[in-house]
Write the structure tokens for this entry.
Amino acid sequence: MSSISSALSRLPAPRTDGARDLDGGGWAAWLRDHLDPAWRTSEWRQDCWLFTGSVHEPRSSVALCRTEACDTVVSPANIFCPFCKEEQKRSPLPAAEFARAFVPVRNRVAFGGVPEPCSFTKDGQRCVRPRHCKELCATHYTQWKTHTVRNTAGRWEDTAVPYADTPACPAPACPLPGLYGRGLCRHHAQRFREHRRTHPDAAVAPWAAQQPPYLAPHQFSLLPLPELLRWEVLYGLQQVDPWLRIFEPPQVRRMVRDLAAATTLIGDITDQQMCPRSTVAVLRMLGRVRTAVRAGHAQYTGTAPAQNDVLDLRALRQRSRTPAGIRQPKTVDLRTIRQPWLRDLLRTWTVQQRPGADEFARTLRGVELASRALAQRPGTDDPAGLRYDDVTAVVDAIRTALKRDGEPAGWNYRMSIASHFFALIDYGRRSGTAETLSAAFVRDPALHRIPEQEANEDEIGKAIPEPVLRQLDAHLHLLGHGRARGQRTLAPDDLQLMYHTLYILLRDTGRRPLEVCSLPRDCLETRNDQICLVWNNHKARRHRRRLPITTSTAQAIRTWHERREQLHTSLPPTGTDYLFPALTHLATRPHLPTSYLGETLRDWVDSIPHLHGEGTDTQGNPLPFDRTLIYAYAYCRGSFNLIGVRGIELV
């Protein structure tokens, strides 16, 4: 087992007990050294601990106001700003029409905004201080008002002097002028008055140095936190950013507010105890940040989770099957594997290869079944003493495996976990991790097989009634509008064309959503004047299958293919080989995820006002069609959201 020890030796080495002291400064220095200086450079300002979400960053929940004529930044996206929201409540127009037609006219600057400069000009020089009233700054307005009330002779402009500078507020990154009490802006002057009620001897300079500017909905600041906690939160945010589908600044701002009484994220108290007033969304964000910080602290102290028998998969950056990543803390106890050599092999493979969620789950299941079978045989704790009969025992255990709920496991699943287990064994030999493993412990491809259960996997799925399909076709113009996944990446016309093509393929071919989403870029083939669709049956692992399709279906594919070629340069290079490629660089698969297709189709079907089924009631009225049956038809081939299938006309 020397190879396993050498592999684990590349993990962080243990530190002395003094390194565990959070107050010694070593932990904060470690955090600073492991921060990413290139993290969201267009949004994060390290010099003043301020995050300002950008509308040009697709992974931030920041956008302009839903009103087309409004330039106010809001978060989350696709909402009205407060001003437009109040007007929309009073308007009789629907929200979508209001967003297109309304033109906001504001007669004052929103709180926290910087007003336009004073309009007073003298000798070609204009006053640069912000307006207060009558288009004048506070000083010039006072001079004008005094001159008018006292009816003083002459013009007030003769004695007035335009200001060439504006004193800045001492709070870091505050854009407002410091024209109020003690040189503060209006916002910080009000905050300082409130602070002096409980701290009457407080000085302005040290207090202002710890104050964030007035925060808009798309901003947050870490300045209010203690220094160590500040570094911990920043490190945690950088670590969890790849796990998030959308980064939401308002949630972080609320988390910072609720952490006001905390000093560190390292501790045994729960998230609820640390932030008792937080909402579920804030606690979820806090849990993710604390998980990352704890993993970093374990690496700092030399107790990283990969050295233990309990693996924190999220801390090890395990890849998830969805863009949202692993949302909940996920640990695996390897102590259930009784053979030390098998346990060490699985641990080393997980650390070095960082498999995806599906691959790890099936490998772990295969290892558990193999460990249970080997435990009943003598001498299996020594990998050098394993024999051919031991392999047979492992295969027999997998061949008769049950699901975790006790139901019989399907052939595909049993074959898959067997393949993953022996792939792990091959990895151990190939990488030198299991050099002492007996050469007799090898799978016989002829005898160690999982008998296949015959099933016709290429059958056409059960069709939705033709009258319902005609109604769906009549409302096809609604598909791709409204709540359609991919709006932040594709233009509306391109998004609609893509989903129209996907619907036509589902309707006319009866293939599963995964089989349609993963179609190769050149999926059309013509043989003897017959057009065929080239597709991959992932469930049965039968690739390059051919299905005759109609000319109209082929034309729909060609139309989207032409448009897809024009979008090629703006799409991630990982999806080059697919007709429906991934839309973002963060996608976990190179093609469009089936979750995008499923959610968009469900929202589209739910938006259709009336959907009638076959037959009529006793009064002759058409019977309503149960929309949930559309999804029931979807399950007829072991998939979801399959719309239906029409008869194939040979061409």
Q: What stands out?
A: The two ends are 63 Å apart (CA to CA). The first strand starts at residue 44 and ends at 45. The CA atoms of residues 245 and 324 lie 5 Å apart.
